[in-house]
Write a structure and sequence with these properties.
Structural class: mainly alpha
Radius of gyration: 17 Å
Number of strands: 0
Largest sheet: none
Strand content: under 5%
Distance between the termini: 10 Å
Helix content: over 70%
Length: 76
């Protein structure tokens, strides 16, 4: 059987994609920062932490929804 992905799950997937892009951008910015200023704290570190936390929450929420809609619906 095919997996079930409802509208909410599609929206969460899009949010995950956008959040990953933001996190990647922040990580690249941080790398450039530390290349230039090795002994100075990255000024957007809290943004990166917040983005990582959001990504984790989105991922967990998506997994709960996926499990709810798909567990047991696969044929053995």
């Amino acid at each position: 059987m095919s997996e079930i992905i409802n509208k909410e799950m599609q929206e969460i997937k899009q949010m995950i994609i956008q959040t990953v892009a933001k996190r990647d951008s922040l990580k690249n910015e941080m790398q450039e920062w530390y290349d230039r200023f090795p002994n100075v704290k990255f000024k957007r570190l809290q943004d990166l932490i917040t983005t990582d936390n959001l990504l984790s929450q989105l991922d967990s929420h998506y997994k709960r929804l996926w499990d709810f809609h798909n567990t047991g619906s696969q044929s053995a």
